[in-house]
Structure formats: C-alpha cells, structure tokens
Design a protein that fits this description.
This protein is of the alpha+beta class and 247 residues long. It contains eight helices and nine strands. It folds into two domains: 173 residues, no CATH class; 44 residues. Strand 3 and strand 4 form a beta hairpin. It is elongated.
Length: 247
C-alpha cells in the first residue's frame, strides 16, 4: 500500500508545471551524503512518519457488489493511515529551489482529494478516495527541526505533505445467495414431523369415533359371512348409511 502511495505522489510531483522538465523525484532520506551525490535538480519526498487516523476507524462490514448491484462478498472496513512526507527541492541556487517548491505547491493544492479511479493496484480496488493535505496546521509529534537533526543535515525550506490512505484489514468473505422467495412458516408436531407432510399423515392416530365405527363394521362383516345372509362387500354401505342389520 505504501509503495502505491509513493507512485501516486511521484506522478503528481513530476506532473503539472514540472511535466517534461526531467527533474528527478526521489524518496531517499535527504542526508548529507545523498545531497553530496546530487549533480542535477531533484525533488525529494522523504516519508518520515506513519500513524493511524483513529477518527476514521469503523465497525461492521461493507458489501462488495457486481455491476448489477448484487452482493457477492463482504469485508471489514479498511483502516486509515496518515503518511507524512517531507518534500524538499535540491538545486545549486536557493532561488531555483524556491521556484521548484512553488511549482510543487501549485500541483498539490489542487488535489485535496485523490479519486479512487486514479489510484493504482489495491488502492484503486478498494474504491475509496484519499485525502491529501499540504503545509497544513496539523503536525506530527516530531518537529521538522528534529527531523533535520536526525538526518544530520541543515534545515531547508520544505513542504509537509500528508496522504491519508486506506489499508485492508482482513480478507473478503463470500456472501450467501440472494433471497428469491418470500418468508414462510413451517410447524412441527411433538413427534418432530412437519404439519401436512406424508409422514405426519401416516403417523396421525385415528379419532376415537372413527376407531369405534371401524370396530363395529368389522363385527357386522364377520357375522354376515358366518350366517351367509350378507356379502362381504355390503357391510361398508350399511354401516355408512345407517341401515339396520338384517334379521
């Protein structure tokens, strides 16, 4: 993620008024040894501080959709980090350095927001814009004088550039298939079978009245067959129609 922010910043610093000038954009620490090796004008963007912007931290998940708006995956919100760069100009004359810094300032102040479609790699895949501030009032815990002292060099005019970049915190998770049917209610009996299912109908016991009628019908059929006064198929009709037993 950091190297992609470097690429974005290098494209901005090398464009604008400096486009086609051939001025090099470096990210090395501007130490005395580095300055002594320079034999051509250069812009240096030294990354001196990285810290999280906790005010942007979020909870929950965000959906990842396709072109039709269908949710395919879900992911946790990214964490945002402030990348602070010390931008300086290096030439033989101070006036030339001031001209370079003026050109850099003009290129940066018009880009307070870096659109997602202009970001490379994983930054562009997140679909989030990045804020950029230059020479702002918010400074990190270390002063510029302390930074120059740590680098072993003399204090130079510089621009404090801060890019707040998102960083993914976890892999994406596949989402369930879309819902295509309405909600329904299914009731289970005490025996665990679903109401209305074939298994439930097979297990359902006969009512007392039905059981008594079946028992009486079986007795009438047995008597008729023994005496020969009724045919086996006539029993059910008499029982259901209420006709008296033949004598």
């Amino acid at each position: 993620m950091i190297h992609e922010v470097d690429d974005v910043l290098k494209r901005i610093l090398g464009g604008g008024a400096l486009a086609g000038s051939g001025i090099d954009v470096a990210f090395e620490a501007p130490t005395r040894d580095w300055a002594a090796r320079r034999n051509a004008p250069a812009i240096n963007a030294y990354l001196y501080d990285i810290r999280e912007d906790v005010s942007r931290r979020q909870r929950g998940t965000t959906p990842v959709t396709d072109d039709n708006g269908i949710v395919l995956r879900r992911r946790q919100p990214p964490r945002w980090f402030r990348l602070s760069y010390l931008v300086t100009a290096w030439t033989k004359q101070p006036q030339d350095e001031h001209r370079l810094l003026s050109a850099v300032l003009g290129s940066l102040i018009t880009r307070e927001i870096l659109p997602a479609e202009q970001l490379p790699g994983s930054l562009g895949a997140l679909g989030l814009s990045m804020p950029l501030t230059v020479a702002g009032t918010q400074t990190e815990s270390r002063s510029l004088a302390e930074i120059w002292s740590a680098l072993g060099g003399e204090l130079k005019p510089s621009l404090d550039v801060v890019v707040t970049a998102p960083f993914p915190t976890a892999p994406e998770y596949d989402a369930g298939p879309p819902v295509t049917e309405g909600a329904g209610v299914r009731v289970r009996g005490i025996d665990g079978t679903l109401e209305g299912s074939p298994e439930r109908r097979r297990r359902r016991p006969a009512s007392p009245a039905g059981a008594a009628a079946d028992e009486a019908g079986a007795g009438i059929a047995a008597d008729a067959e023994r005496t020969g006064r009724a045919k086996p198929g006539a029993t059910a009709s008499r029982r259901t129609t209420g006709e008296p037993r033949p004598r």
